[in-house]
Amino acid sequence: VSWWYPRRMRAFHGVCGLAVVFAATFVALAVAPTGCTTFGGVEEPTDAGSDSDTRPDVVAVSASFLPEWAKAFAPSSAVADGGTRVSLGDAFLQPGGGILLTGAFSGAPTTFGGDALIPAGTYDAFVAGLDSLGGHSFSRRYGDADEQFGTAITMNGGQSFAGFILRGNTQFGALPLVAVGPSYKGAVVRSDSAPNQLRVASGDLAGDVFVRRVVPLTSGGAGVFGEWTRRIAFAGFEQARVSPTPALFVANVLPLSGVDVVRSFGELDADCAASGLASNAAGHMLMTGRFKGSMDFGAAGKLTSPDTDAFVARLDPKLEPVWANRISGSGNAEG
């Protein structure tokens, strides 16, 4: 297991997230190196400790690409091996200018401007909120002595949908305990005035499920994109796979509870990785990532590559493929 995500759960280097545009401003997330980083005259100190430490910056950038402010977050103290790390998985910029963040931290108590979050295990997931100037609004920690990661976050109609990759036992407030054992499982948690935990993806002891992206849908729910190996199970959907390499899944989560429709892509010879997911007002979604082997997109055709190539595909509101394109070069390519 690497310091951030196990195999297929890629570490973030450089810009690792981009929030949607509201009020002519967007937010870039960067994992900065040790020392001090300057964003167009807006300076924010980063780690003063070991090179193995990481400390992400949140940077507000105007429509003309001029930084307005920058905030860095790090553990409040170092541990003996220097392994203090905070990694940002995703960000969402709210219409009023507030920012939602999710990710993981390890090694020592960590603060986002409020009370320090105390780690319980190897990696703990977090969800944090900042105001339009980067000030602390709230911060929450989730996890036990095992590993938990926050990977995706969005809002829709006043509800937030956060994606997680979990192992061990995780308690989301007053919701039922999510016990998943030694395999990595995906989960999406909806929060509003009546929180409802939506366990939209799970695996068994022989397989893992990774939630990568969550986007808002015009239906009021959320689109979910990720990877799975061996076995994946949803409400009313279940599929097994004898190959140990990952396939892709995409799902429509209903605004209140449950899953509307699920699709899986990737033949037995495929080795896939999910990257990006976007939706439009008509309910269509674009998904991108990388693959090796074959991916069958039904009426949109089959993509095949002996090397690792990028792909982009468009899905209709029922997740039926409209078209799919392979993007390749002289070597490997990633979407």
Plain-language structure description:
The protein is mainly β. The protein is globular. The strands form eight sheets. The protein has a four-stranded antiparallel sheet, with no helix packed on it. A four-stranded antiparallel sheet has the order 8-9-11-12, with no helix packed on it. The protein has no helices and 26 strands. 0% of the residues lie in helices and 56% in strands.
Task: Describe the protein's topology.
Blueprint: E1 14-18, E2 25-32, E3 36-39, E4 42-45, E5 55-62, E6 67-72, E7 74-75, E8 85-93, E9 99-106, E10 110-111, E11 124-130, E12 136-142, E13 148-156, E14 159-170, E15 178-191, E16 196-198, E17 209-216, E18 222-228, E19 231-234, E20 237-240, E21 247-253, E22 259-265, E23 271-279, E24 285-296, E25 302-315, E26 321-327
Antiparallel strand pairs: 1-2, 2-5, 3-4, 5-6, 7-10, 8-9, 9-11, 11-12, 13-14, 14-15, 15-16, 17-18, 18-21, 19-20, 21-22, 23-24, 24-25, 25-26
Strand content: over 45%
N-to-C SSE string, H for helix and E for strand: EEEEEEEEEEEEEEEEEEEEEEEEEE
- Evaluate the radius of gyration: 19 Å
Residue share in helix: under 10%
Features:
single chain, 335 residues, mainly beta, four-stranded antiparallel beta sheet, disordered N terminus
In short:
The protein has strands at about 15-20, 25-30, 35-40, 40-45, 55-60, 65-70, 75, 85-95, 100-105, 110, 125-130, 135-140, 150-155, 160-170, 180-190, 195-200, 210-215, 220-230, 230-235, 235-240, 245-255, 260-265, 270-280, 285-295, 300-315, 320-325. It is mostly beta strands and about 325 residues long.
